[in-house]
Amino acid sequence: MRRWVLDLPADTIVLDAPFTFSDFQVFIFNNGIAFVTAFLQYTNADVHAVYEFLQPGYTKKSWCNFA
């Protein structure tokens, strides 16, 4: 496995989200699989917005209630 930390300016990767992603990394494995990871810091009040961004519709059908 190889890993690279992408030391990029903040405006290089722009996502349509109400929060900021940082510390992007790329992991490349020998079998042709690669992952891009990002650090996401948010407050407890933003939990629903994070879930809605990552998997739209999931939290509306979930048995969990976020107050």
Pick out its properties:
67 residues; alpha+beta; three-stranded antiparallel β-sheet; 2 helices; 3 strands; globular
Walk me through what this model shows.
By secondary structure, the protein is an alpha+beta fold. 18% of the residues lie in helices and 30% in strands. The protein contains 2 helices and 3 strands. Strands 1-2-3 form a 3-stranded antiparallel β-sheet, with no helix packed on it. The model has no long low-confidence stretch (mean pLDDT 80).
What percentage of amino acids are in beta strands?
Answer: 25-35%
Give the helix/strand class.
alpha+beta
Q: Give a quick account of the main beta sheet: strands, pairing sense, barrel closure.
A: 3 strands, antiparallel
What value does the average pLDDT take?
Answer: 80
Q: N-to-C terminal Cα separation, in Å?
A: 41 Å
* Count of distinct strands: 3
Instruction: Indicate the radius of gyration in whole angstroms.
Output: 15 Å
Strand order of the largest sheet: 1-2-3
Task: Specify the number of helices.
Answer: 2
- The ordered H/E elements are EEEHH
Uncertain spans = none
Shape: globular
Which oligomeric state applies?
A: single chain
Query: How much helicity do the residues have?
Result: 10-25%
